[in-house]
Amino acid sequence: MKNALEIASFRLKGGIAVEDFLKASIEMEDGFAKKQNGFIKRTLAQNESGEWVDVVYWKTMDDATKAMESAMKSPACAPMFGMIDDASIKMSHFQIQNL
């Protein structure tokens, strides 16, 4: 069974402090992501132009899909998601071929 990779790229809403976003991100990871079946690890990065990428490794594509569906209803995710500019979000899932 191949692992899955979830990649979300986005920008923050205007006026959101990076420190506040990072705090909400840690709370989302600890309060939601790490508790999901199949969670392996997560990396969050930002480039010089202010675009963010959130990369999550999952044991299976099914784990990734179920977690994404649950995240949309989770109170633990709402603060972080509320800081993201919805129009800028691009979400993709990939099956990892080299593991």
What is the strand tally?
4
CATH-defined architecture = 2-Layer Sandwich
Overall spatial form: globular
Strand order of the largest sheet: 2-3-1-4
> How far apart, in Å, are the first and last alpha carbons?
10 Å
Order of helices and strands: EHEEHHE
> Which fold name fills CATH's third level, the topology?
Alpha-Beta Plaits
* CATH C-level class: Alpha Beta
The profile of the biggest β sheet is: 4 strands, antiparallel
- Provide the structure class: alpha+beta
The helix content, as a percent range, equals 25-40%
- Could you list the spans in which at least 5 consecutive residues all have pLDDT below 50? none
Number of helices: 3
Measured by DSSP, the beta-strand proportion falls in 25-35%
Mean pLDDT metric: 96
> Structurally, how many domains make up the residues?
1
Rg, rounded, reads 13 Å
Features:
99 residues; alpha+beta; Alpha-Beta Plaits; four-stranded antiparallel β-sheet; 3 helices; 4 strands; globular
Description of the structure:
The protein has a single domain (4-95), classed as 2-Layer Sandwich (Alpha-Beta Plaits). It has a four-stranded antiparallel sheet. It has helices spanning 18-31, 61-71, 78-81; strands at 4-10, 39-46, 52-58, 90-95. It is of the alpha+beta class. The protein is 29% helix and 28% strand. The radius of gyration is 13 Å and the shape is globular.
Short account of what is shown:
The protein is an alpha+beta fold and 99 residues long.
Topology, pairings included?
Layout: E1 4-10, H1 18-31, E2 39-46, E3 52-58, H2 61-71, H3 78-81, E4 90-95
Antiparallel strand pairs: 1-3, 1-4, 2-3
